[in-house]
Amino acid sequence: MPFTEWLACCGSRQWAKRMLALEPFPAAERMLEAADRVWWELSPGDWLEAFAAHPRIGESTRDAQAAREQSGVRGAEAETIEKLAALNRAYEERFGWIYIVCASGKSAAQMLAILESRMGNDPETELRVAAEQQLQITRLRLEKWMRGQ
Q: Is 33 among the residues known to form the active site?
């Protein structure tokens, strides 16, 4: 897979570089295992780079992949969208990075509830939670790539 496609799956240049260096993979499962292992070996700075590659939940984006993943926001009530926007800002002020959630299959109300629940985390805990969410997003993108979608 070209570097740009690895980068589109995750957003961390270091992750993409390391995955590219590990090619070829003998099987899809080996690629997913490597993706997990490499992710957890990265620094928090690499994680933050991956987070920053995402649009904020609920904001319009030209990133077609992200728009599909956040499709649960489309058609949400204006009040829910406004609350998401306000809490996104509060989250960024509290933690210093954007709110990351694996949005696929979730409604705007569900993403809002998750955001509200995570606001009480301490920064160290929240960084790990956000990293786990990023890994879920990466795995979904890799699985879609393997299916040719």
A: no
Burial of 97 (C-beta count, 10 Å sphere; 0-12/13-18/19+): buried
What pLDDT does residue 126 have?
98
Question: In the predicted model, what is the mean pLDDT of residues 41-62?
Answer: 88
Provide the residue ranges of all domains of the chain, joining segments of one domain with +: 3-146
Q: How is residue 32 written in tokens? A: 């997913």
Q: What's the confidence (pLDDT) of residue 94?
A: 98
The amino acid that residue 10 corresponds to is C
Class of domain 3-146: mainly alpha
Q: What is the pLDDT of residue 122?
A: 98
Of 7, 12, 19, 54, which one is the catalytic site residue?
54
User: What is the reported pTM?
Assistant: 0.90
Distances (CA, A) of 32 to 27, 94, 128, 145: 9, 32, 19, 12
Residue 140: how many CB atoms within 10 A of its CB?
16
Reported residue count of the chain is: 149
How far is it, in rounded angstroms, from Cα 109 to Cα 77?
9
- 1 vs 31: CA distance, rounded Å: 11
Q: What CA–CA distance (Å, rounded) separates 149 from 138?
A: 14
Q: What is the pLDDT of residue 50?
A: 98
